[in-house]
Every structure is written in structure tokens, then in C-alpha cells.
Amino acid sequence: MSRRRSLSTLKLVRIGEPLSRLELESMASRIREAFRDVVRRFQLLEYQPPGVEQIEAGLLTQALEQDFGGHILGITDADLLDRSVPDFFNFVFGCKDNRNHVAVVSTHRIQSRDPSRSLARLLKVSLHELGHNFGLVHHYSYEPAVDGRYCPMTKGDFNRHGERSYVRSVIDARGYHFCDSCRRFLRLTN
Ligand SMILES: [Zn+2]
Ligand SMILES: [Zn+2]
User: Fold this and answer.
1) Superfamily assignment of 8-136 in CATH?
2) From the CA of 135, how far away is ligand 2's center (Å)?
């Protein structure tokens, strides 16, 4: 028996209409490229939005896990709350629940007047949370990836930046490719 586990299927689930189908497909192709070592198949799926403006991220991941199962990225325009973070600031751009293989991201706090920038931010947050799905951890070293920008797993000090500055200085500065050590980890472990 091969020691190598089979490559995964990744389900991208659009919750309501936080982005167009075309934008979802363009995100999928970038995600496919970044995870080409570990993801073989993609499914684009739809999920009825919960109809609330704020939602507990963990609850949303559990609902998606129940309905679809497996490796999932859920995309919503609802504001995501994570009360497990020991911080007074409980809103998150994205979240990976450790109890399942589900990551969720929100368009709510990363909007720009330029729609292409909003989409780029959504993609970068998605790559980060999906990185957690496949076992990657944060690094604070501002490791440039092959495209010369920060690796998607780069994490800044949120409390030092504040929300708007964090989006501009950390999220916008990330690229679409993982750094060498993250890629090596993905190849070896998945
Ligand atoms: Zn993270
Ligand atoms: Zn990295």
C-alpha cells in the first residue's frame, strides 16, 4: 500500500451570492494552481444563505460539513464571528474550524472600491484558510513566495495594525503562491 494518501477533492461552496459565478470560477482556477500538489478534483456548489448579517464561523463550518462533507471552502458575505478567539475583536476575515475540514471566508470586511482588489483579497484570505485545511501554520517571517510577494500563510500582528491597515499591509501584500517551505510541507504530508 502506498504511504501517500490520495489527492483530495475540494468543494468550493458559494453561500448566497457574495460573488458571481464567473468570479467563483476564476478563484477556483487560482486555488487549483496554488494547491496543485494536493487537490485533484474541484466541485463548485451552492448553499442557501442563512439569512443573517452576522454568523458564528464555527456554526457555519458545521452546517457545511453536515451538508457536503470533506474539504470545503465556504464563501459568504455575512460577517463572520469567532468567539473562540481570546480577543475583544471577534470578527474574522476567514476561519478554519479544527473540528472538521471546513474553512469559511467572508467578503464583508475586505471590500474595496475596486472590485478586482476585493476579489484578490478574497482569494488571498481563501488560500490562507485552505492552507490550514491542509496542515499549514502561520509564519511571521514575511517569507517571500515565488511570485515575490508574501506567502499566503503570512500573518501579521493584528492588534498592532487594526483592521483596515491589516488588510492593506498584510493581506494585500500576500501573493497567490505558497513559499518553498509551505509547498514542501504540502507535498510531504498530503
Ligand atoms: Zn490563519
Ligand atoms: Zn509559507
Assistant:
1) Collagenase (Catalytic Domain) (3.40.390.10)
2) 12
